[in-house]
Amino acid sequence: MAETPARTVHYIVKVSKFCNLRCRYCYEMPELGNRDAMSLDQLDRMYTHIAAYYGAQEERSRIVLVWHGGEPLIQEPELYWETFARQKKIFAGREHLQVENVVQTNLTVLDEERIRLLRDGFDGVGVSIDLFGGLRVNLAGKDSQARVLANMDRLREAGVQFGGISVLTRRNLHQVKKIFRFYEKMGMSFRLLPLFPGAFEDQHADFSITADEVLKAFCTLADLWMESDKALNIVPLSGHIQAAVRHLRGHTLPTFYNRREWETAIMVNTNGDAFGYPEAYDAAYRYGNIFTTPVDALLASESRERSVKASEMRMALSCARCPYFGSCSGYYMAEDNHQYVGPEAQGIAMCVVEKQLVRHIEERLKGSGLFTGAGRGAPAVTALERLDAAPQENLSLSVPA
Ligand code: SF4
């Protein structure tokens, strides 16, 4: 009998906020000059707590540590080699735990040692690049992109596998086709991430986007994906395509996202404070400190209970009457607290993009021949097979460094 796949949890590890860039949308803006970094001992304590909690579970767990900043590659490579060695010792003997280390980098700080670290030390690499818009600038306001493109070439020459993350803003909204063609030509998986809240009011004033614009961009991207010969994994679009296909097939087991049962992402601030993904950095929702507190105590905290209840409320208001619920797990509403608050929502985030995007994909699949059968219970779907064959880089929960 086939083994059930391990349940995945992402720990987003803010190793240090220090950064050489000042991307204009960065939500860490006030902290980017702060050189504080996690110490090896603090990281040991975090691993010890993670190993104890997931090691006590009966089911297998896949623990993905997403190294994040600031710019994590400003830290000396020795920090990572040493902490990876200690990590191996701490997790040793726990056969049902799979631990991976991935890094999200702006790829502006690169030398031979760091190339070796990315190739031989990390299990996955995400590169932040918007391709259009000029928002990823250094302290002097100079666009970093030419350097990042040159460093991407160096990584390819060195045989380092990597994916891309591009932030969707007013500055590149109309270049979605070119963005897709860039990644298609490179054969790279990527995440297109709609602009997220910044560090202060009006930070995004001249490049903000509306929910309708996000929807339009993703519909364009979906059309391009269906016309392409390449099986690129595009996050989050792959999930929407899978939801549409499931809905068309009509005979697969429904899936419902249950954050209470399994927390898929925990954000760890540089000082060890842990948060759920929807309310990261909100002091009112701090679970506790992972350097000093076991994971079971963090997950049993009163602030996590409030965070989970808020997720459940968003799902109840948006998903319960949605025709796609079960084909779509409701993950987007559970894990996203702040994107699209419509006038009808009375201050509660509503599903504006996802539902219409899944509907658009469903209609396109029906009309395109990619969905080969007719009606419910139809046979295998070419599109889904292509998705299954696509490389699955760890792009799902990263945001740009
Ligand atoms: S409301 Fe949105 S998130 Fe919820 S099931 Fe429907 S498409 Fe998915």
UniProtKB/TrEMBL annotation:
<dbReference type="InterPro" id="IPR023867">
    <property type="entry name" value="Sulphatase_maturase_rSAM"/>
</dbReference>
<keyword id="KW-0408">Iron</keyword>
<keyword id="KW-0479">Metal-binding</keyword>
<dbReference type="GO" id="GO:0016491">
    <property type="term" value="F:oxidoreductase activity"/>
</dbReference>
<dbReference type="InterPro" id="IPR013785">
    <property type="entry name" value="Aldolase_TIM"/>
</dbReference>
<dbReference type="GO" id="GO:0046872">
    <property type="term" value="F:metal ion binding"/>
</dbReference>
<keyword id="KW-0411">Iron-sulfur</keyword>
<feature type="domain" description="Radical SAM core">
    <location>
        <begin position="14"/>
        <end position="182"/>
    </location>
</feature>
<dbReference type="Pfam" id="PF04055">
    <property type="entry name" value="Radical_SAM"/>
</dbReference>
<protein>
    <submittedName>
        <fullName>Arylsulfatase regulator (Fe-S oxidoreductase)</fullName>
    </submittedName>
</protein>
<keyword id="KW-0949">S-adenosyl-L-methionine</keyword>
<dbReference type="GO" id="GO:0051536">
    <property type="term" value="F:iron-sulfur cluster binding"/>
</dbReference>
<dbReference type="InterPro" id="IPR058240">
    <property type="entry name" value="rSAM_sf"/>
</dbReference>
<dbReference type="InterPro" id="IPR007197">
    <property type="entry name" value="rSAM"/>
</dbReference>
